[in-house]
């Protein structure tokens, strides 16, 4: 019989993370730019105390363990208090993306059966409009103080967050329960189909926070000042509200101000050393610092993920600004971290260009995530850096089902040796993995361009366009072609100014010469003022495909 370990059995609970921060980094600062317009300063100890007051307030309102509390809020200290006050007391924090269409927000809040909805002042008009559709919400809580409460509102029984918190004495003991209890829910941003809820557990969130903080992952340290640009309504801001508490570092929360100027000023005034966000955010920041001839005085490192980081962006940040870029890949269903591109001692011996090439990939899996590429029958493909296939993952912070869906999304995988390798989550991404385990996403399965039976990676073609000095943003989509089935169409947003204005179809296509195989060069270029983005800042190719469905390619 197996010998059992004789160690204490302590559940991995989110309350333990905030308690640790309060105890060991109690006076470390949390700085928030608030919707009300001020810059607010608090500490980990105060956040933990107020989270306990919140837990008391929710109990007084009659909420019971397992009840969902929706949030519509930017990155700020009240949102942070809600993260811990809800999950810590056994409630489930349901962050909702306020950039979604109002109907989608209502749909998601109803699907999750939210019992309370907490929202920033800026979302008051939105919630006033939505309230009649939110039949299951019993308490509407405006995340502000008495002075900012509206004189009147159409929302029945609208409550003031600060009043609720201040009415409690904070003498609350965090309860102990099963670590597999749900802690939070996040809906997939829905680039395709109806949004679906990923339900995280205390255990998965704490393990993910550990993994994310490792030196070869996000490398969070108590010495850092961390500013997550990635919103707290999107996959728990990539776990940073937990990882920063776990290491006890200073946290800077930018509120709704995510434009280049606001971010730059906050980076400088708070001496931010580390940040994380989607590529679109860095486009804005780089445009601002570039146009104003500025440099960063403290910014050392940033995680870029959520969409492929264009190599040109990586190079600009590293070479012109001395900011180390950590390219990361993940998804809502994975809490979200899967892989990050960081170099080991073997890679650091390689010539500079080869190192760069590796940094441009999505990187290596962190412990806790197992990955494989498989063919359409689920058979594992070799890790040779060339063979691309469907990327599948498994691990303790990967979902095994969606909220309210009985059917399993998992697929059965067979190893290269033909043996059954169990059930894995299909990511919908297409990737190749090299012998050292560096993974590179070439596409999402539905974005792949199939030309004459060969696959063209839209990411490769986009990255070249993004390296053109006069191109602001570029997307490649497949359009039907009589001979080749599909051919790539390049959609371009010009940079403002003369160089952008001078761009032509021919000059853009000429730029591809020698950079990519001839058959992969787009057949045509269209110029647009703007590329539509999803609520999480990804290019909305579905919309582009609709828009250019009937586009006549030359010779097509
Ligand atoms: P949704 O799947 O609803 O768009 P997610 O935020 O969960 O929302 O997106 C996950 C997807 O985003 C991944 O499956 C992948 O297609 C894409 N993605 C994330 N990070 C990267 C990256 N570094 N490079 C390329 N694609 C990425």
Features:
alpha/beta, binds adenosine-5'-diphosphate, seven-stranded mixed beta sheet, 17 helices, 556 residues, nine-stranded mixed beta sheet, globular
Verbal overview:
This protein is an alpha/beta fold and 556 residues long. The chain is built from 17 helices and 26 strands. The strands form five sheets. It has a nine-stranded mixed sheet with strand order 2-1-11-10-12-13-14-15-16, with helices on both faces. Strands 7-6-5-3-4-8-9 form a seven-stranded mixed sheet. The longest helix is centred in the N-terminal third of the chain and has 17 residues. It is globular, with a radius of gyration of 24 Å. The termini are far apart. It binds adenosine-5'-diphosphate.
Cofactors, ions, other ligands: adenosine-5'-diphosphate
**Spans of at least 5 consecutive residues with low confidence:** none
Count of helical stretches: 17
Largest sheet: 9 strands, mixed
| Overall pLDDT metric | 95
Read across the widest sheet, the strand sequence of neighbours is 2-1-11-10-12-13-14-15-16
Shape: globular
Binned strand content = 15-25%
Provide the gyration radius in Å.
Answer: 24 Å
Structural class: alpha/beta
| Helix share, percent | 25-40%
Separation, N- and C-terminal Cα atoms: 69 Å
Overall strand count:
26
Layout of helices and strands, plus pairs?
Blueprint: H1 14-24, E1 29-33, E2 39-43, H2 44-60, E3 68-72, H3 77-88, E4 92-95, H4 102-111, E5 116-119, H5 124-130, E6 139-142, E7 159-160, H6 161-166, E8 182-187, E9 197-201, H7 202-213, E10 225-228, H8 235-238, H9 240-247, E11 250-253, H10 260-269, E12 274-277, H11 279-291, E13 301-305, H12 311-321, E14 324-330, E15 337-340, H13 352-360, E16 364-365, E17 370-374, E18 389-394, E19 411-414, E20 420-433, E21 439-444, E22 449-451, E23 454-456, H14 458-466, E24 471-481, E25 485-494, H15 498-501, H16 505-511, E26 524-528, H17 541-547
Parallel strand pairs: 1-11, 3-4, 3-5, 4-8, 5-6, 6-7, 10-11, 10-12, 12-13, 13-14, 25-26
Antiparallel strand pairs: 1-2, 8-9, 14-15, 15-16, 17-18, 18-20, 19-20, 20-21, 22-23, 24-25
Helix pairs in contact: 1-2, 1-3, 1-9, 2-3, 7-9, 10-11
């Amino acid at each position: 019989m197996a010998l059992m370990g004789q160690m204490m059995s302590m559940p991995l609970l989110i309350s333990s993370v905030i308690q640790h921060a309060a105890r060991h980094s109690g006076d470390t600062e949390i700085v928030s730019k608030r919707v009300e317009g001020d810059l607010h300063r608090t500490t980990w100890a105060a956040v933990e105390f107020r989270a306990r007051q919140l837990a008391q307030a929710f109990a007084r309102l009659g909420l019971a363990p397992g009840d969902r509390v929706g949030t519509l809020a930017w990155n700020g200290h009240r949102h942070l208090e809600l993260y811990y006050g809800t999950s810590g007391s056994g409630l489930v924090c349901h962050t909702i993306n306020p950039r979604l269409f109002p109907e989608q927000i209502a749909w998601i809040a109803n699907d999750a059966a939210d019992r309370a909805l907490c929202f920033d002042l800026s979302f008051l008009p939105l919630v006033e409009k939505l309230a009649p559709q939110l039949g299951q919400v019993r308490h509407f809580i405006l995340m502000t103080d008495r002075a900012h409460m509206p004189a009147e509102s159409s929302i029945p029984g609208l409550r003031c967050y600060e009043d609720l918190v201040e009415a409690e004495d904070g003498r609350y003991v965090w309860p102990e329960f099963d670590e597999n209890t749900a802690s939070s829910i996040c809906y997939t941003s829905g680039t395709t189909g109806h949004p679906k809820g990923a339900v995280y557990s205390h255990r998965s969130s704490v393990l993910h926070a550990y993994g994310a903080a490792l030196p070869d992952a996000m490398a969070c340290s108590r010495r850092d000042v961390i500013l997550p640009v990635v919103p707290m309504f999107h996959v728990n801001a990539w776990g940073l509200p937990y990882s920063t508490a776990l290491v006890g570092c200073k946290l800077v929360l930018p509120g709704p101000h995510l434009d280049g100027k606001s971010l730059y000023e906050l980076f400088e005034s708070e001496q931010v050393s580390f940040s994380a966000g989607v590529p679109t955010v860095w486009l804005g920041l780089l445009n601002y610092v570039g146009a104003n001839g500025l440099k960063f005085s403290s910014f050392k490192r940033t995680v870029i993920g959520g969409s492929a980081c264009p190599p040109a962006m990586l190079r600009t940040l590293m070479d012109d600004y001395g900011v180390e870029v950590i390219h990361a890949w993940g998804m809502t269903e994975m809490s979200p971290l899967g892989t990050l591109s960081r170099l080991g001692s073997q890679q650091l011996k390689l010539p500079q260009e080869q190192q760069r090439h590796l940094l441009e990939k999505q990187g290596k899996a962190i412990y806790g995530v197992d990955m494989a590429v498989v063919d359409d029958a689920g058979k594992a493909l070799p890790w040779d850096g060339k063979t691309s296939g469907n990327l599948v993952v498994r691990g303790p912070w990967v979902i095994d089902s969606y909220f309210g869906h009985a059917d399993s999304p998992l697929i059965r995988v067979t190893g290269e040796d033909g043996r059954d390798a169990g059930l894995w989550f299909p990511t919908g991404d297409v990737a190749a993995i090299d012998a050292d385990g560096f993974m590179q996403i070439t596409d999402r399965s539905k974005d792949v361009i199939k030309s004459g039976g060969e696959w063209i990676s839209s990411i490769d073609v986009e990255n070249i366009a993004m390296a053109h000095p006069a191109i602001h943003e570029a997307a490649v989509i497949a359009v039907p072609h009589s001979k080749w089935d599909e051919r790539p169409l390049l959609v371009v947003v010009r940079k403002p100014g003369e160089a952008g204005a001078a761009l032509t179809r021919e000059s853009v296509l000429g730029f591809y010469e020698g950079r990519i195989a001839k058959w992969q060069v787009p057949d045509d270029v269209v110029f647009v003022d703007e590329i539509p983005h999803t609520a999480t800042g990804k290019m909305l190719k579905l919309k582009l495909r609709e828009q250019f469905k009937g586009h006549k390619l030359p010779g097509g």
